[in-house]
Specification:
Blueprint lengths: L1 H7 L3 E2 L5 E3 L4 E5 L8 E4 L6 E7 L5 E6 L4 H14 L9 E7 L7 H14 L5 E8 L4 E4 L2 E4 L4 E4 L5 E5 L7 H9 L5 E2 L1 E2 L4 E4 L10 H6 L2 H8 L10 H14 L3 H4 L7 E5 L5 E4 L5
Parallel strand pairs: 1-12, 2-4, 3-13, 7-8
Antiparallel strand pairs: 3-6, 4-11, 5-6, 5-7, 9-10, 11-12, 14-15, 15-16, 16-17
Helix pairs in contact: 2-3, 4-7, 6-7
C-alpha cells in the first residue's frame, strides 16, 4: 500500500537549501534537532536501492544509497549509527524504508533487495520494514524496456515524510565524491550531526586505468560498459561519468593535488542554508 502511494506521487524538485545530498556508497545520519539540515536525499538509483533507517523515538534518521558492494557490513554500520543517536530514547523502534531498483535484465535489483532484507533480518535489533518499494514494485515497462518508477527520494528529518524527489544540486564536491566511488570506495559517513558539518575525504586512489581510452569513447560505449542498466539510466548519466573521469585524469594522485595535508574538506550551512567551505584550521 505504501509503495502504491509513493509511486503515485510526482517527484518533487528539492532545492539545495537545508538539503544534505547523499551519493552512492555514502551515508548520513542526523536528528530533528539539526539546525542546518532538514532534508536528506539521493537519486539516480537504477539497480541501486536507497535505504532510510529511522528511530521513531529519537527521530534519528539515516539515508544511504546502496549498490550491493558489501551489503551486510553496510547495514550493520547504518544500524549502529542510528542507534548511537537513539540511546537515550527509552521508547520507539527502528523502521526501515527501501526504495529503488526495477526488473533489470541481469536481476541485479532483485539480488540487492534480497541482500538487504537478509542483512536487516540478521541484525540483533528488531528492524521493522515500513516501506517496501523495490524491484518489481518499482518497475514500469515501456516498449518492452523496463525502467524504475522512482529514481530518487528525500526524507524530511523533522516530519519523517518520505517522498520521490530530484535534486538540481548534488554538491558540494560532486566530482570528487563520484571519483571516490568509481575508484572502489567502501561506504563512507559524510556528516557529523553534532558539529553540523559535512566532511569530504581525505580520499586517496591510484591513477585510474585507461582513463584516456574511456574519455575517447562515444556515449554509447560509455553507457554500455560503465552502467549496470544502460537502457534505464537518467539522461545525464554519460555526462556525469565523463565529468568524473575527467576529474580522475586531472587528479591521478589525490594525496598531492587534493589532500596534501591529509585533512577532510569541511562544509557548514551558511545563513541561506547552502554549504560553504570552512577553513580546516578553525576546527
Amino acid at each position: 500500500e505504501k509503495a502504491k502511494l509513493l509511486r503515485s506521487q510526482p517527484a518533487q524538485v528539492v532545492e539545495p537549501k537545508g538539503l544534505l545530498y547523499v551519493q552512492q556508497r555514502e551515508f548520513a545520519v542526523t536528528t530533528p534537532k539539526d539546525g542546518s539540515v532538514s532534508i536528506l536525499g539521493s537519486d539516480d538509483a537504477t539497480t541501486c536501492h536507497i535505504v532510510v533507517l529511522r528511530h521513531t523515538g529519537s527521530g534519528a534518521t539515516c539515508l544511504t544509497h546502496c549498490d550491493g558492494s558489501d551489503t551486510e557490513a553496510e547495514v550493520s554500520l547504518i544500524v549502529s549509527s542510528v542507534k548511537s543517536f537513539s540511546n537515550t530514547a527509552g521508547y520507539g523502534r527502528l523502521e526501515v524504508h527501501l526504495v529503488g531498483g526495477f526488473n533489470d535484465d541481469r536481476q541485479l535489483s532483485q539480488k540487492l533487495t534480497n541482500q538487504l532484507l537478509r542483512a536487516f533480518d540478521l541484525q540483533p535489533d528488531d528492524v521493522h520494514l515500513a516501506t517496501f518499494c523495490v524491484t518489481e514494485l518499482n518497475d514500469r515497462e515501456e516498449k518492452d524496456t523496463h525502467f524504475p518508477i522512482i529514481y530518487g527520494i528525500a526524507v524530511n528529518v523533522k516530519t519523517a515524510e518520505i517522498f520521490p524527489a530530484t535534486f538540481p544540486e548534488k554538491g558540494p564536491d560532486e566530482d570528487l565524491r563520484s571519483a571516490h566511488v568509481l575508484t572502489g570506495a567502501t561506504l563512507t559517513n559524510i556528516y557529523d550531526a553534532k558539529l553540523e558539518q559535512l566532511h569530504i575525504g581525505p580520499y586517496f586512489w591510484s591513477p585510474f586505468p585507461h582513463v584516456d581510452f574511456w574519455l575517447e569513447q562515444d556515449d554509447k560505449q560509455i553507457l554500455q560498459n560503465l552502467s549496470t542498466s544502460p537502457l534505464a539510466e537518467p539522461p545525464h548519466f554519460v555526462s556525469h561519468i565523463r565529468s568524473t573521469l575527467t576529474f580522475l585524469k586531472e587528479h591521478p594522485f589525490p594525496s598531492r593535488s587534493l589532500f596534501p595535508d591529509r585533512k577532510p574538506r569541511i562544509y557548514k550551512k551558511n545563513e541561506e542554508g547552502l554549504w560553504e567551505q570552512v577553513c580546516s584550521d578553525k576546527i
